[in-house]
Amino acid sequence: MANYEPLIVKDDRILLLNQKKLPHIVEYFEAKTVEDVCFAIKDMVVRGAPLIGIAAAFGVYLSTLNTRSIDSLKEQLEYALLCLSKTRPTAVNLFFALDEMKKVFSFDLSLSDNISEMRDKAFEIWDNQKKSDLMIGVNGAEFLKDRGRILTHCNTGSLATGGIGTALGIIKTMNKKGYLESVFVDETRPYLQGSRLTAFELQNEGIDYRIVTDNSCGILMKKGLIDAVIVGADRIARNGDTANKVGTYCLAVMAKRHNIPFIVAAPESTIDKNISSGKDIVVEERDETEVLKFGNSFTAPHGSKALNYSFDLTDNSLIAAIVTQKQVYERFEF
Predict the structure, then answer these.
(1) pTM (two decimals)
(2) Where in the chain is the domain with CATH 1.20.120.420?
(3) Which one, 5, 55, 154, 255, has least CB within 10 Å?
(4) 228 — alpha (psi -120 to 50), left (phi > 0) or beta?
(5) Helix H segments across the chain?
(6) What is the tens place of the pLDDT at every residue in 136-165?
(7) Strand partners, 285
(8) Interior/surface letters 6-31, b for 16+ CB within 10 angstroms, e for the rest
(9) Residue 2: pLDDT above 70?
(10) Residue 192's closest CA among 181, 182, 200, 183?
(11) Is 186:244 a contact under the CB 8 Å cutoff?
(12) Nearest one of 152, 142, 137, 45 to 325, comparing CA atoms
């Protein structure tokens, strides 16, 4: 990656690239405490399901640093897990990472060994995500090698995972293999993760792209400009129903209408085997001011109200394939 890293760990300093200030300002938010990490996740300084999980893992580690006994470490661990679990309800990777960190603690280990193991586990979660991204990229690129004109939604790249990305990782891999012809990037309201973040990544990769409004999918598909749609996921149910950034469902319906493959890319950790279908997924509703504003400027009349669902649910019947680091699934019974 050129000029930026989504997460930097120096000794016990956790630096999170402030994604709210991209693409024009590359600035890092230093998380010194678990409360700082909770704020960063909730306020979308850091975002993207896998990267949220990774940041949370390092947040748990931070919470243990000033403990002076096994008992106080256990108390801090429980506090950190509770604080972090309340930040974003939809992304399952957050809870996967917290469960992994919780498993590390042991009364059989010394205080220093517990803390060291916590740090190692956080890095392991991050390293595993990087490896998963590479395999998702390879699997997806080979599956779509004859479909070079891609539409993508939100941001699913390095800024979302800490690796090369999931859906965007496939696009990057397709480009390296010579399979990619063109990329259309949904701007992705209200936080503009497409026009701010995905475009930022593609530009850094030297990949040509076009930013389009979220409601352009119909005309693009009708004109025959799209060969496939690739998106990420924040949670996948056992039957293949998915939760992803709001607007994904609209794309899936439109893709089905035009007989265009709709592909979901995510690590295996995004599959929540505790839920049977999308009906069990909690959809986060965020502050209405995110909709009433464009950037820092209010665009709606004074007194307007808004409804701001951050995610929507896509039925498995609309999904052609789910790409993970293990394989390309075309039948969904997880």
Answers:
(1) 0.94
(2) 7-131
(3) 5
(4) beta
(5) 34-42, 49-64, 70-85, 92-104, 111-143, 158-161, 167-177, 199-205, 217-222, 248-257, 289-292
(6) 999 999 999 999 999 999 999 999 999 999
(7) 309
(8) bbeeeeeebbbbbbbebbeeeebbeb
(9) no
(10) 200
(11) no
(12) 137
Q: Write down the residue that tokens 């997806």 correspond to.
A: 140
Confidence of residue 1 (pLDDT cuts 50, 70, 90): very low
Residues annotated catalytic, as ranges: 234
Report the alpha-carbon distance of residue 107 to residue 258 in Å, rounded. 58
Residue-wise pLDDT for 120-133, tens only, equals: 999 999 999 999 99
Tokens 């009349």 belong to which residue?
A: 301
Q: Give the burial class of 5: count Cβ atoms within 10 A of its Cβ; 0-12 exposed, 13-18 middle, 19 or more buried.
A: middle
Read off the tokens for 107. Answer: 């009364």
DSSP helix, strand, coil percent of the chain (3-state; round to 5): 45, 15, 40
Q: Which tokens go with 217?
A: 């999918």
> Domain 135-329 maps to which CATH number in 1.10.3720.10, 3.40.440.10, 3.40.50.10470, 3.30.1070.10?
3.40.50.10470
Residue 251 and residue 215 in contact, taking contact as beta carbons nearer than 8 Å: no
> How confident is the model at residue 90, as a pLDDT?
85
Structure tokens at 81: 């897990």
Q: How confident is the model at residue 4 (pLDDT cuts 50, 70, 90)?
A: confident
DSSP letter for 20, please: T
φ, ψ (nearest 5 deg) of residue 311? -135, 165
Distance between CA atoms of residues 188 and 193, nearest Å: 6
pLDDT at 332 over 50: yes
Sequence ranges of the chain with CATH classification 3.40.50.10470 = 135-329
Between CA 322 and CA 273 the distance in angstroms is 15
SS3 state at 82: helix
Residue pair 316/241 in contact (Cβ under 8 Å)? The answer is: yes
